[in-house]
Amino acid sequence: MLRTCRALCSQASPSPGGWQPPNFDGGAFHLKGTGELTRALLVLRLCAWPPLVTHGLALQAWSQRLLGSRLSGALLRASIYGQFVAGETAEEVTGCVQQLKTLGLRPLLAVPTEEEPDSAVKTGEAWYEGNLRAMLRCVDLSRGLLETPGRTGDILMQLKITALASTQLCKELTSWVRRPGDSLELSPKRLAEAMDSGRDLQVSFLNTEQNRHLQASLSRLHRVVQHARAQHVRLLVDAEYTSLNPTLSLLVAALAVRWNSPREGGPWVWNTYQAYLKDTYERLRRDAGAADRAGLAFGVKLVRGAYLDKERELARLQGTEDPTQPDYEATNQSYSRCLELMLNHVAHRGPTCHLMVASHNEESVRQATKRMWELDIPLDGPICFGQLLGMCDHVSLALGQAGYAVYKSIPYGSLEEVIPYLIRRAQENRSVLRGARRERELLSQELRRRLLGRGLRVPH
Fold this sequence. Notes:
Elements: H1 2-12, H2 34-47, H3 50-54, H4 56-67, H5 69-78, H6 80-84, H7 90-102, E1 106-110, H8 125-144, E2 155-159, H9 167-177, H10 188-197, H11 208-230, E3 233-237, H12 245-259, E4 269-274, H13 280-294, E5 298-303, H14 308-318, H15 328-349, E6 353-358, H16 362-374, E7 383-388, H17 393-402, E8 406-411, H18 415-428, H19 430-434, H20 437-451
Parallel strand pairs: 1-2, 1-8, 2-3, 3-4, 4-5, 5-6, 6-7, 7-8
Organism: Sus scrofa
Cofactor: FAD
Family: Belongs to the proline oxidase family.
């Protein structure tokens, strides 16, 4: 095992004389056990089967009725849950993270929350307060997983704003944000002052109940970021649907005013930009420039996007322009342009600008590593890579062994909490699951090699 790790590091580390492209041929699978690889192959094949993804919640309920909760739960833990989830208890999460660390990978914890608009329980104020407590515990858990945070060991955690503020409120605010000459009542500075002071914020176009919920939501956000800053944990805010994103960006901008000052060691709050939307490049360029002019640190998680089918269907039903790129190639071009923009921004601004290249696409990752070398951005600098736990390991492992900072997005929690979350994420990420064909092929090759009894192959 030690010889294998050394060989992978020697092969993948950038040469002093020039850039060496990372090798994503599955050689790093030697670092994982046969049982892990077998489960990964079976689960990824199952997830590529459309009926399972489409009817996942119904199939889960049917399995519980037919097999009973105990047996059904055991099957899920041995398959989908075990592949994509760190565990339920702090001890299980810690064990998963320790295993990742031995592979050169880092944790990006995520609290799985699913608002249900028709449920009084899962939209009431008590539910959001419960989510706040879960977020604060996640901050503490994230902090406890890394002993020495710093430039070479930043602690990152995902934050979903609609776990702390209702989607209905976000839609209402978005309708005003999008109006020409949007209201000064919703300026980031005014929202930041309300967060910091705790004074009631009254917005004229909201009713009494909505204003009360807005104030409570701002308080929850402030408490999470305040606690995260104290624990040296950086928060990556999830992007969601286009009907919500303008409000999410507004709230991130308000938090940035308070917490992303270089004096605070920021950025502590990052926003997520979805390259599959037509306006993303211009928004990213505008936001990066605004942060620069304001003297604020700037943090970006760059993704392709997960809500393609729903966004297109919603635009069709509403008779509005489709906000998404016309095809996959256009999305790739958008991602490449946004990536180039941010890499140059990082090279110019240094440690006050951070970027996560959150991609399962090998060409995007190669582009990032090549441009990092050309722009003289160090591997232990403010750029990192991100993939989902249980997926794209041939990329994650190769990057981690080469010395890049690589994070795996890690949901955790009970079966009851996580399985609905996983199924909905699978429905949103159908293209990613279908696109895992190359990973399945590499897994098959490695398992065949082991079953045929050939010796340990060390890449060279």
